[in-house]
Amino acid sequence: MFRFPTAMLRGAAMTRTAASVARSTRSFTSTGSARSGSTQLASSAPISWGAQRLLVAAVGAAGVASAWVYSSEPAECQVHEEKFKRFWPRKILILFGKPGAGKGTQGPKIEELLELPQLSTGDMLRAAVTAGTPVGKQAKEVMARGDLVSDEIVFGIIKERIAHDDCKLGFILDGMPRTLAQAEMLDALLREDGERVTNVIEFDVPDQILEDRIVGRWIHKKSGRSYHVKNNPPKSLKPGKKPTKENMKDDQTGEPLIQRPDDTPEALVKRLSAYHKETEPILKHYAAHNIVKRVDANQSMDRVWEDILKALEC
Fold it and tell me: Which of 10, 91, 98, 103 is catalytic?
């Protein structure tokens, strides 16, 4: 059996393409999976590795971000999976956006769609320190002195993290790199394994409308899920009620939401200045490789999501 999981960018197109391959080989029947967004192709008889490659290539052309090939024999399954992981390039996606542009809202949806881990430097740093890895110990010593963690240590932690099994097919970086120098360090790190950043998405919102988004934003600290009292309120906030710590709860866990201390009009001015000065040169750097897609985040969340899907297809 060949199974292509939910991590796909154009499900309908994939189904059409896979069905076409199935008809041409006359060996498969397309079946819908109970798992949303996934497609399975069942075979009543073994097929050649060449036919398998044709099927993988066809689905890949339809925009699949990751896929696993399964056969009826466990050993054969493992061989095909390892070949896929070895020869299919990892999808390495970076998300950029001004404060309040919507990364916190759309990022987890992209992570779920692609079935790739979304990595943030803060989370990776804390995990490395807790795990007591060699680089984590270095970071702990630096932080104990009250110093800032150097880029070298940060990228050492990134190198450790992206070697984990859940990153074999790719990963998503959230707001990292933050400077052009860090972008060049990331490029150098990926080149060690013959890789590169494959996609960059910028959530674009005009500066002048961001203040309303910022001051109304509440965040679930553990997951990074973002809410807004007007545009995306949690279910716990009833219509007409003023947001408080008691009635602002995460939809999935029921845990309290928080407001970031720098989500103020005064702090926003400084953060936007830093974004224009430090982040925009990074976008120009990657635009030279024709991998940057700009999404208009100043529209409804449904329309933003549609534009994200189009950006990921390219």
Answer: 103
